[in-house]
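hiii so um. not sure if this is the right channel but i have a protein structure encoded as tokens and i wanna go backwards to a sequence. like what aa goes where. can anyone help
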């Protein structure tokens, strides 16, 4: 009886492992960089264009909204270059060339509160 219980119990544990793995792998990889509208500059609070996205509305100076302030981790530019600044101290944080999509370097991550877009 105990060997039957062990086999059934082991089978249930294996099944639970498969279900858990299936749940993780069933989540599709989301290429959020493609969510950025043509001609715009977009920033995300997650790596590789994941998480919350903000589409920069204008050329020149733009204040990053509260929900993204000092949380920017990745960005995509179409035709316009972009520079990131820590507005509290007006400190340059980093830049993105035109037609670039990338994560910020570790020393740039989660610091930006202003964006300058070249037009």
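sure thing!! here u go:
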């Amino acid at each position: 009886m105990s060997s039957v219980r062990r086999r059934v119990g082991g089978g249930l544990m294996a099944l639970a492992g498969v279900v858990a793995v299936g749940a993780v792998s069933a989540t599709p990889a989301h290429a959020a960089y493609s969510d950025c509208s043509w001609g715009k500059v977009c920033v995300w609070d997650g790596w590789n264009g994941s998480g919350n996205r903000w589409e920069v509305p204008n050329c020149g100076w733009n204040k990053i909204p509260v929900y993204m302030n000092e949380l920017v981790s990745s960005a995509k530019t179409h035709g316009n270059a972009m520079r990131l600044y820590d507005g509290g101290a007006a400190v340059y944080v980093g830049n993105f060339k035109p037609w670039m999509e990338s994560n910020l370097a570790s020393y740039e991550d989660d610091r930006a509160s202003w964006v300058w877009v070249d037009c």
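oh and Residues 32-117 form a domain with the Gamma-B Crystallin; domain 1 fold (CATH 2.60.20.10).
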